[in-house]
């Protein structure tokens, strides 16, 4: 296996560079990357490139991308089980009908296809939620737990409706099974006005803390100003310490709540991560038959960023009753976010939203020994017109798209 000791001529995004990084012609100077066993280091290119380094010639380089929020158990089912009406609750009903098809083979085939699409996009870490239909782990928990890919770590979140936590024995039972699943398994929950139960929510948080689990919640995926999930989470965290990492996916209701800024202040203090899902939020929020949507349905990304709250963008559902389209390409998600959230410079600023590992794993280095390279080097078009890409992992080049060379096979 041919491994490069490093690479020269990498155009890194400004968010990754120190303030004193040299600027040439209004652009950051290209970087030399050193792939050390203890991690990646970089410095401005020098006049004399080190021998044996791969020449990137100004190619755009990002840390390996992250898909922080997927549903590999539901994906690729829209052809056989489309939603009968617009909106979130009709999609849930359609997926429940589809479950009769969920044999181990069916789950494995669909989840593997999703994983391959994500890896083709440059994803090195994929977090998938998996629906639980009772307090006992569903077959999909094991099937997807058995998936492996040399270029992608997979994390599983137990997505159980809040009602399953109403009884603290059940809450403990769910958390115990997640804890027994080892690294990369998290506790989750679907928390919505339609199933709100303050005691159940407290049971969920206490069970996660007792079993030392990180959590990732589907929370307040609605535009109801009375949604209680994040409000109660902020209240809980002010009273009770929580040792693990908390991630809140969706949080759409914040955009309608008069006390949103106070809630965000608490989340910032507690280093809670937010994940916005622009594709499905645009599609499912403010969805009324025969009426053009008036609201975007997205959480308060800019207000969260202003407070230093870690933040990522995810794809959410792909080709199922929730969302009939989707590609598992984080660049498609980012493009949607660039417009719907009116984000800043795509590559130099917004790209952090699809590759910052510390948002999910506090303390992770901003860039590890695993990067994705966009050889067309067209920064003005990025993230559009960027089909070609490859990975450099521990110095080994892996083709992701046709026409790129693999040195690591
Ligand atoms: Zn989701």
Give a brief description.
The chain has 409 residues and is α/β, with parallel strands linked by helices.
Task: Give an overview in words.
Residues 196-345 form the Amidohydrolase domain. GO terms for molecular function: cytosine deaminase activity; isoguanine deaminase activity. This is Cytosine deaminase. With 409 residues, this protein is α/β, with parallel strands linked by helices. The termini are close together. It is built from 10 helices and 18 strands. The chain folds into 2 domains: 6-63 and 368-399, Urease, subunit C, domain 1 (Roll), CATH 2.30.40; 65-359, TIM Barrel (Alpha-Beta Barrel). The structure holds zinc ion. Zinc ion binds at residues 69, 71, 129, 218, 249, 316.
Write the layout of secondary structure elements.
Blueprint: E1 6-10, E2 23-24, E3 27-28, E4 31-36, E5 39-44, E6 54-55, E7 60-63, E8 65-70, H1 88-98, H2 104-121, E9 123-131, H3 139-145, E10 153-159, H4 168-180, E11 185-191, H5 198-210, E12 215-219, H6 229-239, E13 246-250, H7 260-269, E14 273-276, H8 278-284, H9 301-306, E15 311-313, H10 330-340, E16 370-374, E17 390-393, E18 396-399
Parallel strand pairs: 1-6, 8-9, 9-10, 10-11, 11-12, 12-13, 13-14, 14-15
Antiparallel strand pairs: 1-4, 2-3, 4-5, 7-16, 16-17, 17-18
Helix pairs in contact: 2-3, 4-5, 6-7
The chain binds zinc ion.
Domain Amidohydrolase: 196-345
Organism: Chimaeribacter californicus
InterPro entries: Amidohydro_3 (IPR013108), Metal-dep_hydrolase_composite (IPR011059), Metal_Hydrolase (IPR032466), Metallo-hydrolase_Enzymes (IPR052349)
